[in-house]
Amino acid sequence: MDRNLFAVLILVYLELSMRAGTSPVCPSGQAGCHVPSLADLFNRVIQQSSRVHAISSDLHSEFEQYFFPSKNFLGKGKCHTYGIMTPADKENAQRLGRDQLTEVILRLLGAWEDPLSQLYHSMSQDQNQDFNHYSSNKALEISDMVHELRDGVTKVAEKMKLLGVLGNYVGYTIPETLPPSSAFYFNKKGEVTSMDHLVLLYCFRRDSNKVKNYLRILKCTTLPVLDC
User: Fold this and answer.
1) 70 vs 203, which has greater pLDDT?
2) Is the pLDDT of residue 151 over 50?
3) What dotted CATH number matches 37-222?
4) Among 109, 113, 93, which Cα is nearest to 45's?
5) Which pTM value belongs to this model?
């Protein structure tokens, strides 16, 4: 057999073998695809939300210690997500219902995409380069993760709709009482201060913790057979 032909046949065989040995994830369930279960999707977004909250907590603490080491910052001031009505505790979240709780999670995540992007750009232009180069990279990481998390929660909601455990009308909408998020912090007269950044990080740490807890509650109320 010709050596060139033999080599081509070997390459074709290896490619077919590699394709047969993989099982790509796809949402529509085509042949050869692995369709993740609702439990799998929940686990992914819960893990992602835990990472987001952990990084946001670290960044807030590091920022506070660097710029305000002698003060005990209490997060005074109104967060831009104050217009989103959220359950105050676990019991209220459990009573809220799957449709409403999913809506709250999507609204919180959607309300943070623009402010986190603005935070990154503001930090990257700050003169405190010894700290803000590091912190702006973390802000960018969080911004990307929140975008991925919102996409993941959207996939969870779509799966819940297919299974008939979520209303078809559920989706992300900006409530009328929610002010333009970027304008709330960054489109104001005068220089954006470190305190502005700290307030934003405080608010995001609070809201990311809510999202993490709400996702866990939503999983338990949707899949009650699991040990929650």
Assistant:
1) 203
2) yes
3) 1.20.1250.10
4) 109
5) 0.78
